[in-house]
Amino acid sequence: MKNKVSIDHLNLSVKNFKESYHWYKSIFGFELVEEGIEENGPWGILKNGNSMLCIYEFPKRVAMVKDSDNFHQIFHFGLKVENREYWQHLLKENNLKTYYGSPIRYSHSLSWYIKDPTGYMIEVSSWDENKIQFNTN
Length: 137
Prior knowledge:
single chain, about 140 residues, alpha/beta, 2,3-Dihydroxybiphenyl 1,2-Dioxygenase, domain 1, 2 domains, 4-stranded mixed beta sheet
């Protein structure tokens, strides 16, 4: 019998814990469910539904060189929103900068690309009819 697998959480280093936490809370509704202090500073687990982010403060770290041919890297991570109109309201209300000509129309969704306070690229997707769909041949 095969296991059903889903992503449990993303673990991110951030420049400023408080700023990042408040940003993820105000933009996406993540709540702080656990926190602590390590030698480098604060850390916390943020949760919204079944999605979790674990953030650790490392204020002296710098971002990896964009699109470097020498390193494997995650180029962005994606978050799905269910209320497209409310998401568009948040974009405008928070004056969030979008990238790549967002929103981009894909076969069954719209996506906006934004950056968090540390500079992580996030693809925010709104699926048509709130249903994950793919083209079939």
